[in-house]
From TrEMBL:
This is Integral membrane protein YfiB. Residues 42-159 form the OmpA-like domain. It is found in: Cell outer membrane. Pfam families: OmpA. It comes from Klebsiella grimontii. One of its GO terms (cellular component) is cell outer membrane. Keywords: Membrane. PANTHER family: LIPOPROTEIN YFIB-RELATED, STATOR ELEMENT OF FLAGELLAR MOTOR COMPLEX. Signal peptide: none annotated. The keyword ATP-binding does not apply. InterPro entries: Bact_OuterMem_StrucFunc, OMP_bac, OmpA-like, OmpA-like_sf. Its main location: membrane.
Amino acid sequence: MGNILHLLYLPQFFLAAARLRKENSLQNKLAAMKSYGFTETNGDWSLGISDTILFDKNDYHLRADSKQQIRTMASRLATTGITHSRLEGHTDNYGEDGYNEMLSLKRANSVADAWAEGANIPRANLTTRGLGKKYPIASNDTAKGRAENRRVTVVISTP
């Protein structure tokens, strides 16, 4: 009779263990994102990476050191189970809208390519958008503000 009682509680044990693993996994994901400076807004975690760190002026090819940093970050986040994200390119308000949108998309794609390599995930797991000058985070009236607006943002939906 005692053995039957233990077998009845066995499924509950496995459910509790699975819940604990899921909670630990979520804590690991959040800790990894926070360690890189991701911030949470409306259920998504995002990190804006300045274009001056990633690219030369009016270029969309990643600098070699930036490419390695992106790969390293993506690899670490992938070990926690983060394998999907959205990358959004942004520009300042200088230049034509069409050019800025094309440049911002090419930059987002460059970061996404390096991200997929580093995380060892299919490139199809990453979506990209070129938003041009539509969503500034600082005033475009100063050089400092324009520099802040030129960025690629990595967005990860709440795990």
